[in-house]
Amino acid sequence: MHSSTRFDIIAIGGSAGSLSVVARLLKALPGEMDTPVVLIMHRLKNVSSELNRLLAFGRPIQEPEDKERMKAGHIYLAPQNYHLLLEADGTFSLDYSELVHYSRPAIDESFYSIADAYGKRALGILLSGANADGAEGLARIVKNGGAGIVQDPMEAEFRIMPQAAIDMSADIKIMKTDEIISFIKDQYHTK
Amino acid sequence: MVEEISNTELQELIFIIQHQYGYDFSDYAQASLKRRFIRFMGHAQLEKLAELKLQLQTDPDFFKKMVEYITVNVTEMFRDPQFYQLLRDDVLPRLATYPIIKIWHAGCATGEEVYSMAIMLQEAGLLERSRIYATDMNAANLEKANTGIVPLRWMKDYTHNYIQSGGLHDFSDYYTARYDSAIINPALRRNIIFFQHNLVTDHVFNEFQLICCRNVFIYFNRTLQERVVTLFYDSLAPRGYLALGMKESLLFSKERKKFEVVNGPNKIFRRKY
Ligand SMILES: C[S@@+](CC[C@H](N)C(=O)[O-])C[C@H]1O[C@@H](n2cnc3c(N)ncnc32)[C@H](O)[C@@H]1O
């Protein structure tokens, strides 16, 4: 049996109010799913230990080193103080330059590089947050043929971030957390 | 505003720069290099890639400004205090056995890392017999470094870093505050020389007991990293130390077998023989 999907990467961005949502999404990932997941979260202290604690089981979350190759089935978290970029050959590049939206890592920067390197094979998800980081990036993923989802602003603890993305592109799907989970599960028909 | 640069466009830019000015960016990591070009175009208020190309082809001063912008110059004194603590506790005592200690800071930016090293050597009583070679490809950075002046507003953070690294002295003894500048004591700078060296095109120029090349590899692709690791290997004395940035690794290099890991998380390595 082999699981297949149209996506080679799932990138999730979030800020204030997104941690518990990320934990729910990750817990619900189908066991056979081997698409790597990349998380870009900002303004949160100790995201990685906090997430590892919330998840308590399952796949550990790793902070990639520069030029590390992204591996099937792994979950990566953008390290503090660097922008996390993806190269077309599937390796990570860390970038230590100016803050974007007062943040480093910035969700936009990761999403741009993913849109560029992965095109229609990218799925971007943007969750709760109190600023507009990630909105343009998500619109870029969609523009380059990938799929973009935002957490329904009605459900999100902070609606600014998902709303900013909705305002940028009509092709972005709006979903509640449960719907995002079913969407991901639907991608994994085993054949 | 330009939002994206295609691979073909990137290759064209790299070609123009190489052809016209001899700088070779072809083995820089693509995603971050594209990002740098896009940011620079915003900064220079250029709307179209064609304008950038034209300016590059006709205006050497413009090119100089661009190189200064796209090579990231962010740096700190005692950045990553635990790294400095390890240097102080584990590396410097070993270096103390050499009559002359030669250290190379490759990609030293505006010198903050170099002054930090000088302070630690001073405290270990080794500065007198140390020779510090600090290089960068960006001439504007080196000019700044040479003045020994650091913006005063950062000194609070640097003092904090210094204390965290295990520093026991009064940090303000190491500089003189003047308006908004901190002038690093000339005595600390006496054995430092700054000069231009491009890791892509320039060669081995001496033999060192310690090479620090922190937060430079992240701008290179694997091929270039590999080449520069070889350059460092050839520039190290047997059993000499190599220190990289906290997120940089030798793991992906074929050369890694020639090094032993002194401290994994802090990226301190040692040439085997
Ligand atoms: C982020 S700074 C690192 C400064 C310092 N080592 C630190 O860790 O704080 C990167 C530096 O690498 C330099 N650099 C980039 N490419 C280079 C090359 N090919 N040869 C030498 N230096 C280079 C840049 O000019 C810049 O000053």
Tally the beta strands of chain A: 9
The greatest interface here is: A-B, 25 and 25 residues
Dominant shape of chain A: globular
CATH class of chain A: Alpha Beta
Looking at this structure, what is the CATH superfamily of chain A? Methylesterase CheB, C-terminal domain
Which architecture name of chain A does CATH use?
Answer: 3-Layer(aba) Sandwich
Detail the poorly predicted runs of chain B: none
The hetero compounds bound to this protein are: S-adenosylmethionine
Features:
heterodimer, A: 191 residues, alpha/beta, Rossmann fold, 7-stranded parallel beta sheet, two-stranded antiparallel ribbon, 6 helices, 9 strands, 19% strand, B: 273 residues, 2 domains, 7-stranded mixed beta sheet, 3-stranded antiparallel beta sheet, 10 helices, globular, binds S-adenosylmethionine
Quick structural gist:
The complex is a heterodimer of chains A (191) and B (273). Chain A is an alpha/beta fold and 191 residues long. Chain A has helices at residues 19-28, 47-55, 107-118, 135-143, 160-168, 177-186; strands at residues 9-14, 37-41, 61-62, 75-77, 83-86, 92-95, 122-126, 147-151, 173-175.
Task: Describe the protein's topology.
The complex is a heterodimer of chains A (191) and B (273).
Chain A: E1 9-14, H1 19-28, E2 37-41, H2 47-55, E3 61-62, E4 75-77, E5 83-86, E6 92-95, H3 107-118, E7 122-126, H4 135-143, E8 147-151, H5 160-168, E9 173-175, H6 177-186
Chain B: H1 7-21, H2 30-43, H3 49-58, H4 60-70, H5 81-95, E1 101-106, H6 112-123, E2 130-136, H7 139-147, E3 149-151, H8 155-164, E4 175-178, E5 181-184, H9 186-189, E6 192-196, E7 208-213, H10 222-235, E8 236-244, E9 259-263, E10 268-271
Parallel strand pairs in B: 1-2, 1-7, 2-6, 7-8
Antiparallel strand pairs in B: 3-5, 4-5, 8-10, 9-10
The structure holds S-adenosylmethionine.
